[in-house]
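FW: tagging you since you asked about this chain on Friday. Here's the raw sequence from the shared folder, copied in full. Didn't touch anything.
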Amino acid sequence: FMNYFLLELFLGIGVMLLPFLGVVIWRKMPVFHGIGVILLGIYLGMVWNITGFPTIQTFHLEVQGGVSMIPFQDFSAFGCIANVIMVMPLGFLLPLLWENYRKLWKTALAGFSLSLCIEILQLFTFRATDVDDLLMNTLGGIAGYGCYLLAVRLFSSWKDIWCGRISRKQEKQEAILAFLLVALIRFVVYPLIYSGVFALLL
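HL: got it, structure written out here
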């Protein structure tokens, strides 16, 4: 079991790493900014896997997941903490990499949007959709932004070395490209590679 877990982990990282490395080279990103974009891609890929996002092999139009719209009806301290921690890297990386996200409301909105996308897509899987997750994920984005503020206070040079120093339009293009690339890889490419690799091993 552990061997398969490690194989899936390294396969998931590798499938995200190579395309994002290509994007970094193609756009001629500065070294630290490129590393940050690659880390963002790997992180989003892991979120896709953890949250049970559908793939081209599992997606269907029939709604199967349950919906809970009452906050904290089935309260779980572990679940709340896990949902906060899961989105903190997003709240940290977005303002670190792009000046356009160096406002709290924009980073909070990004965390909310990611969570909303997760919850909507989970309607088409066996996973439950819960308003608690939406609230805690948004809080996680805000907490990550707080970590960013602390980091740049301790290491003031980070604002310059991790940022791409590009126009706001180019920043938006990079951010959108990163999210779309993750969606393409995890929805189409990764499940096909995953099936092929495990078919050879079994």
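FW: The chain has a mean pLDDT of 86.
HL: agreed, and Residues 115 and 134 are 5 Å apart (CA to CA).
FW: great, closing this out.
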